[in-house]
Amino acid sequence: MKQPLRPSRRVALGASLALATGAAALRAAALERAPAANTAAEKRVLAVLDEVYRHHRYLSVPEEDGRLLRILAESIGAKNVVELGTSTGYSGLWILLALQRTGGRLTTYEIDRGRHDLARQNYAQAGLIAQATLVLGDAHAGIGKLKEPLDLVFIDADKDGYPDYLHKLAPLVRPGGLIVAHNMASPAPDPRYVEAVTTNPAFETVFLNMHSAGIGVTLKKR
Questions:
Q1: Sheet of 105-110, strands arranged across
Q2: Which residues of 85-118 are buried (b: 16+ CB within 10 A; e: fewer)?
Q3: Taking the model in full, what pTM does it have?
Q4: Which of 72, 87, 142, 199 is most buried, by CB atoms within 10 Å?
């Protein structure tokens, strides 16, 4: 026979549920409101983001994760960003919003020609094509040519390939730089990636938005 919850446990459980409900309500309210633009250039990008969100099936990331990418890139003053998995350019547009402010550049890799071409169109429509290098082909081979220090890496490509991307790019990420990986919850990446970013003392990792696809944010400490 189950024992009834003691009053203190009922209060704690009720408080936890209230906090969770409140957080969910705040998140939903934030996503319903379009972000405000403070420049004409930003307004142009946000308009393209809205169009891509409404009309294209392959977004790469939810809007919530896209906003997070912008915040992360801008807050660390990112100048050199690499993205694995361009898709239709939705996530890249959020990153490029930040790079407008930092004066940085995005190099993004996509193996599918149709998505690559569509992303190029979206970047051009947003007025950001000059800040982006779009590479068509296998990113596993392409990133081997990179030599310059990186401020931020965003991984959202083949899930089995996450450990290889980390192995090849982590040495290029500067101390204080970030490695951000999508689909930590669904579809989950190779478990070796999670092990690598959570057991290496050179990294500090948190997992966010696990209620949806999930996103891992890894700080390279040294």
A1: 132-136, 105-110, 80-84, 150-155, 173-182, 215-220, 203-208
A2: bbbbbbbbbbbbbbbbebebbbbbbbbeeebbeb
A3: 0.83
A4: 87
* Residue whose pair of structure tokens reads 């969100």 in the numeric block: 53
Closest by CA to 92, choosing from 117, 128, 57, 64, is: 128
Residue of 79, 94, 203 lying closest to 148 (CA atoms): 79
Question: Quick one: CA torsion of 138, 54, 118, 89, rounded to 10 degrees?
Answer: -50
- Residue 63 in contact with residue 209, Cβ under 8 Å? no
Alpha carbon distance 105, 86 (integer Å): 14
Number of H helices, E strands in the chain: 8, 7
- Find out whether 179 and 170 touch, Cβ atoms under 8 Å: yes
Structure tokens at 9: 């446990």
β-strand partners of 154: 83, 180
DSSP one-letter code for 202: T
Tens-digit pLDDT profile for the chain (222 aa)? Answer: 444 444 443 333 343 334 344 445 545 555 455 556 678 999 999 999 999 988 876 667 889 999 999 999 999 999 999 999 999 999 999 999 999 999 999 999 999 999 999 999 999 999 999 999 999 999 999 999 999 999 999 999 999 999 999 999 999 999 999 999 999 998 888 999 999 999 999 999 999 988 888 999 999 998
Residue 196 Cα to chain centre, angstroms: 19
